[in-house]
Backbone:
């Protein structure tokens, strides 16, 4: 589960997460319609080329309100739920309106980043408890460690980390043995009906 150099250069802090999601989706032939909530970078959408995507951005669409939803085969909320007032409502609606697959990613050990608000941090247990009533098949994973949290706090962006942290150190932090489940930087869920 070591991410490619391209993915690391694009977003060091999410590279392991995106690599794992791609591995989970590999071999699945998912087609149909998809809704992406928030202003994602499109990485997950590119993993599902058979899906016709619609982006729904705040404030025009509020993931926490039923009137913003419509049925879709796939739903993606990539780094969104920490910014909304009622993330449990967003997951409930994802459960109601998703026909096949939901992918949710959230940060954990990251500084406050208002966009326009920064309201919540969720643990893997939180995601599981909120999602269990709606999806029978759920994979929740996390990645991070104290070094990664420190590098984000000190440097805040990928390019600065890669320029200032010795390559052997940042590469090691991407390995499975460096992952510290007690210090997740990002948490992600792939849920199927």
Residues:
């Amino acid at each position: 589960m070591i991410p490619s150099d391209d993915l690391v250069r694009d977003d060091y802090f999410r590279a392991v997460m995106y690599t794992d999601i791609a591995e989970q989706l590999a071999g699945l032939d998912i087609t149909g319609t998809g809704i992406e909530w928030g202003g994602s970078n499109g990485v997950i959408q590119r993993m599902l080329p058979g899906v016709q995507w619609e982006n729904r951005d705040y404030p025009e669409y509020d993931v926490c309100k039923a009137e913003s939803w419509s049925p879709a085969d796939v739903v993606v909320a990539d780094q969104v739920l920490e910014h909304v007032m009622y993330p449990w409502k967003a997951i409930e609606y994802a459960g109601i309106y998703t026909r096949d697959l939901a992918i949710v990613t959230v940060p954990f050990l990251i500084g406050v980043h208002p966009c326009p608000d920064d309201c919540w941090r969720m643990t893997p247990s939180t995601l599981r408890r909120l999602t269990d009533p709606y999806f029978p098949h759920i994979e929740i994973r996390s990645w991070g460690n104290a070094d990664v949290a420190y590098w984000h706090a000190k440097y805040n962006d990928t390019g600065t980390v890669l320029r200032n942290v010795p390559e052997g150190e940042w590469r090691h932090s991407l390995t499975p043995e460096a992952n510290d489940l007690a210090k997740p930087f990002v948490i992600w869920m792939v849920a199927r009906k």
The domain at 14-147+181-192 is CATH 3.40.50.150 (Rossmann fold). The longest strand covers residues 98-107.
